[in-house]
Design a protein that fits this description.
By secondary structure, this protein is mainly β. Helices cover about 15% and strands about 40% of the residues. The strands form three sheets. Strands 7-10-11-12-13 form a five-stranded antiparallel sheet, covered by helices on one side. A four-stranded antiparallel sheet has the order 1-2-3-4. A four-stranded antiparallel sheet has the order 5-6-8-9, with no helix packed on it.
């Protein structure tokens, strides 16, 4: 983000992807693991309501792994009931039809009227390392109670690009938003929730016959939760990180801990990301 990476048919495709990599045209790690996202697939009515709000026709998703086009303008969407926000949260990455840039809209659809209430619209960065596909968006409605009467919700954006021959990469990036009046505004932008580094590349299309059999990857996973302390009237946010290896060896890094503090406008990630980078080395 510039200021911020057919239900039955799709479910069947997801199941196939989980069982056999490469099926259904979406052969990335992300697409093989989007099974949990099935519960957040948007219904046609919610998407149609959002499409009318942004004045875009054919506001629906294509089949899993397919690119949005003139018949289905939405690249990815997520819907989730949100009683704390008095309605249904809907997020969609879409094309307007005027160019190829992806736009993001997040809105609360009022539970009583069925109309769009508070909302947020922005451009999505054209990051070559991120490909937004069906299943790339995930709404997190955990209890991010930041201040009295202020509850945030999260949006994760995950790339659908395959790992290929890369030596490392990232998973979901989480942003937090608060709904205030007619507007939804971001308070935390693009916190990496998982990353990975290659320790050893095994025999594959990326290596020659001299490569070892086993590929070994180190994985870094983060969690985010409100802390008991506050800064400038908003709760601090605690980031905890754990490192693991997929070969069964024990990763000797201690857990990562950092506090994100409210600066009066946003939760800055500068110091946390510097410490995170050092911790991963």
């Amino acid at each position: 983000m510039k200021t911020l990476g057919h239900r039955a048919m799709r479910a069947a495709c997801i199941a196939v992807l989980t069982l056999a990599a490469g099926a259904c045209q979406a052969a990335s790690d992300h697409e093989r693991n989007v099974g949990a996202q099935v519960e957040q697939l948007c219904d046609p009515r919610s998407l149609a309501t959002l499409g009318r709000f942004v004045h875009v026709d054919n506001f629906r998703e294509p089949a899993l792994g397919q690119e949005p086009d003139a018949t289905a303008m939405v690249a990815a969407s997520a819907c989730r009931a949100a009683p704390a926000h008095h309605g249904r949260l809907v997020a969609a990455a879409y094309r307007s039809g005027h160019d190829n840039d992806l736009l993001l809209v997040i809105a609360v659809i009022d539970g009583a009227t069925g109309q769009v209430g508070s909302n947020f619209k922005a451009n999505l960065d054209s990051d070559p390392a991120v490909k937004v596909v069906s299943g790339s968006l995930w709404l997190d409605t955990a209890a991010y109670d930041l201040a009295p009467g202020v509850r945030a919700f999260g949006l994760d954006i995950t790339s659908g690009l395959p790992r290929g021959c890369a030596a490392g990469g990232s998973g979901a990036r989480r942003s937090l938003f608060v709904s205030q009046g007619r507007f939804i505004r971001p308070v935390l932008q693009d916190l990496p929730m998982s990353e990975w580094n290659l320790i050893q590349r095994g025999r594959s299309a990326c290596t020659d016959s001299s490569a070892p059999d086993l590929t070994i990857t180190e994985n870094f996973a983060a969690t985010l939760a409100p802390a008991p302390t506050s800064t400038r009237g908003y709760r601090d946010l605690a980031v905890t990180g754990l490192a693991t290896r997929d070969d069964g060896s024990v990763d000797e890094r201690p857990p990562f801990h950092a506090l994100l503090k409210w600066d009066g406008r946003v939760y800055s990630l500068v110091e946390q990301q510097q410490a995170w980078t050092i911790w991963k080395q």
